[in-house]
Amino acid sequence: MAYISAPAPSNVGSSSNSFKSAASIIGLVCIVGFFFDMLVLALPPQGSAEWRIGLVQEFANRSIILLFGLGLFIFGNAGKKKSSIRLASQLSMGFGVIFFLLCLLSVVDSVRLNNQSATAISAQETQLQTQIEDARENPEGLPENIDLEQLDLVSRQLTQRANALRSNAKRTVFKTGISNIGNLLIVGMGLLGLGRSGMRFSRSRG
Question: Model confidence over 176-199: pLDDT tens digits?
Answer without folding.
Answer: 888 888 888 999 999 999 888 888
